[in-house]
Description:
This protein has 462 residues and is an alpha/beta fold. The protein has 2 domains: 4-91, Nucleotidyltransferase, domain 5 (2-Layer Sandwich), CATH 3.30.420; 201-459, P-loop containing nucleotide triphosphate hydrolases (Rossmann fold), CATH 3.40.50. Helix content is 33%, strand content 16%. The strands form 2 sheets. An 8-stranded mixed β-sheet has the order 9-10-8-11-7-12-13-14, sandwiched between helices. The radius of gyration is 28 Å and the shape is elongated. 37% of the residues are buried.
Amino acid sequence: MSTTTEAATWPRVAATLNADGTAEVSIGGTVHPIAATSVDDARTQTVALVAQKAAQLGRPLRVVTQDPDGAWPLIIHGDGTVEPDESTEAAAPPAPAPTDPVEEPVTAALAEPEQETSPAPTPEEPDSAAPHGAQGWVRTAAEQSAEEAETQPYPSRRERQSFLTQERAEEPATTGWRGALARVGIRVTPSDSERAERDDVRTVSQHWPGPRTIAIVNGKGGANKTPTTILLGALFARYGGAGVLAWDNNQTRGTLGWRTEQGRHEATLLDLLPRTDHLLSASAQSADLAHFVHHQTADKYDVLRSKPDVLASEQRISAADVDAIHAVAAKYYRLIFIDSGNDETDPLWRRMLDHTDQLVVATTTLEDRAEAGSLLLEALRDQGGKAARLADEAVVIVSQDNKDLSAAHLKGIAGGFSAQAREAVTIPYDQAMVKGTLRYGALRPATQRAWLAAGAAVARGL
């Protein structure tokens, strides 16, 4: 492999990658547009394009890329190999000639080396122009510890420092350019976006003492309550392990069973109700629940179905029935997600609220669905007591129901709930959410990331 100083200084190469997967790669003044489905795909196509040019020239090329994670000076070889450019030229590029057009701050370009380079910055005067994450310009953990040791006073003899104090070592990057470099043996710290994702994963992965019940509500049909119940259940089960139940608490044709995987039976909550006393007894075993719930083999949670193929008058559930079912669920599951009906005056709906620890208002970007969710929060707040507390701490999840809808409209709907709820998060349009059996793994990466953020918002209230 050629070293950094052997990399070609011509042609000039610049790559700007956007969050939506589009990119522009300038090679010798010729701009090559890229339209990918994600930033990772755009990175792959960028490397392939520059590698092809490097192979034609018979020498590696220096390129500085700008993507949502920051600026990265790299050397790309004709065989597609990528290595960080640690040269002085990459770290401190000279200013362009007066005749060159002024570049925007977000545009990254290859710097041609000059006969004289700027002196390296001293530790007291860090070089603010160094590319984000560039090798050689970031202090190591050892250097930082040494510096802190020099500035802190020597501990008093009366102060005892524990020998068991340990710092959690940060794992290297796994995504983007940083992840690519880490996979070839170059230890690179994760980007801010990857750190944020790891924080969300830790948040939804924890276990709370005692069971927690999350009710997904909206008084309007078609507000995305069932998909929200499914995907939150899948998310917490995938990251936090087993012990998650999705319960269809609906008097009139609940559709949770239609959007989830069916087990080897057709049991519903009507079949479970006569067996609640046994399931609550000391002789009952957790495996007994398999007769009544439907396990989701890919997403690792269970579903307690209603019976949507009969009239509501034939499957009327009372408040006492809700208590019995919840007692069973709380005995065998650590997290209970309840998909509610549309009638907020139904005793079934009201009793569900008495057992709720966290309220989630599901809505789409249709104005009438959002208005129904807003009115529900207002009504609960007016009731005072626990209902008001649930409304104040509610999480609103706004799902985009139209692929042609602008991002500004989606954010506007979420912003309208900012004064009513603890958090409001948005979910982009995804065809996999429209119909049929819904599985978390079928969603696009951007949609999965949005649901992870939504799950973390819910977990912060538990």
